[in-house]
Specification:
Shape: globular
Organism: Oceanodroma tethys
Strand content: 25-35%
CATH architecture: 3-Layer(aba) Sandwich
Number of helices: 4
Largest sheet: 7 strands, mixed
Protein name: UPP phosphoribosyltransferase
CATH topology: Rossmann fold
Pfam families: UPRTase (PF14681)
Number of domains: 1
InterPro entries: PRTase-like (IPR029057), PRTase_dom (IPR000836)
CATH class: Alpha Beta
Keywords: Glycosyltransferase, Transferase
Helix content: 25-40%
Number of strands: 7
Amino acid sequence: KYERFERGNCRISIMRSGEAMEQGLRDCCRSIRIGKILIQSDEETQRAKVYYAKFPPDIYRRKVLLMYPILSTGNTVIEAVKVLVEHGVQPSVTILLSLFSTPHEGAKSIIQEFPEITILTTEVHPVAPTHFGQKYFGTD
């Protein structure tokens, strides 16, 4: 399916690793609206929990570029899409931008939950490089 960039898109970074993808998008799309969402896994239950979400007020009218570089289980992205849906964003206008994805856990679980979402990734591999954020931010 062919997608083209249109005015009125916005990008949502899943903090903290999604912020690593911001500069590249900002370099080519300077006027794009931005939003952020912070989701972390609970230490005891391992469930993803939303701690913070800030979106453009008219996000429900926009196509959303959801940025998250390492897609392993898919739990974080599923929670992010649920929050977007609560704000009126349809999964069919959400494009997940990911650098690395696991085929059986991550992508499959997201598509099962939201079959209308589009996932763009550069590499599908059975093991996701979980050290990406530490390497990028220099905290390893």
